[in-house]
Amino acid sequence: MKPATTVPLRPLLALAAAVLAAHLLVLRAAPGPLQVSASSVQPFITRTVALAPRPTAAAQVQPAAMQPAVLRVPPRAEPHRARAALAVLTAADPAVAADPPGTLALAAPSPAASQPAPTPTPGVQADAFRVPGSMRLHYEVTAQLRGQTWPARGELVWRREGDSYEAELEIRAPLLPRRMQRSTGRITAEGLAPLRYSEKARSEEAAHFERDNGKVSFSSNRPDAPLLPGAQDRLSVLLQLGAMIAGAPQKFPPATTITVQTAGTREAEPWLFTVEREEELQLPGGALKTLKLTRNPRKEFDQKLEFWLAPAMDYAPVRLRLTQPNGDSVDQQWASTDRG
């Protein structure tokens, strides 16, 4: 019987250590953490939910078709209505003063553009003129606008220096801008010969009588008008008619027609004045015998002008009344006079 073979212990320990070291190296070389199979775990899914804004009442109602916008202007305050009333007396464009409150008027063609110019009827030609000396007339003014009454003050200043003249008519009312008409020119053998006429409230417009060029031009860039013999403006015409009648009263009996080319700040047209009758007026300044003249409307938007001349005051205008087509009016009555 052979004796048992003894395995040395040291080589075995060395082999075990080598195997352990090899396992450690394998574990360190493995990629990342432990991977779990997708089949064993359900994925976690997130969703973002956007809540639609709640529709407003305006968005819920959809119009069937686009409608044109309507611009509504709030009613004017009372002072604006007073300004419109006073504009009846001095405005170059009466349609502006005639607009009712709460409306917005857009530019419209002038009635003169669609109608032929009126043909002047034969009038009386004066042989003599008697132009008065300088004076200042004070008036009490009453404006009637859609049933309401607005008081104001007026003043007509007439200055004569040699062969030159200057006339100013001013209307004043509380809390409102003053309104003024002004005429300047020469005094000739044919009476007044205006050179410049202006109207002013917040801004000024003017007409120029270019006698060398035979035309009337306007600062508002309106077309020029031919200058006719004896042409006047809207202020000087009142004084010119008074000077004509003062020079020969017997030539102007009732029903006499006087034709005068009269310029505003935008046009110059023939105005026809009719001598009506003698009247005695009770005015704020006292009782006066007068001669009434009238300019009646000839077109749709024309104003009616009535005025009374006083022989005892060199045929100065002691009362003026302007009436619009809609019935609005301004009545200007003499209260006192300053001479010199």
Question: Could you describe the 3D structure shown?
Answer:
With 340 residues, the chain is α+β, with helices and mostly antiparallel strands. It contains 6 helices and 15 strands. It has helices at residues 9-28, 57-60, 78-90, 94-97, 111-114, 236-247, and strands spanning 135-145, 148-161, 164-172, 179-188, 191-200, 204-210, 215-218, 225-226, 232-233, 257-263, 268-283, 286-295, 304-310, 316-323, 329-339. It has a 15-stranded mixed beta sheet with strand order 8-7-6-5-4-3-2-1-15-14-13-12-11-10-9. The longest helix is centred in the first third of the chain and has 20 residues, at 9-28. The protein is elongated. The termini are far apart.
In a nutshell, what does this entry contain?
The protein is 17% helix and 38% strand. The protein is α+β, with helices and mostly antiparallel strands and 340 residues long.
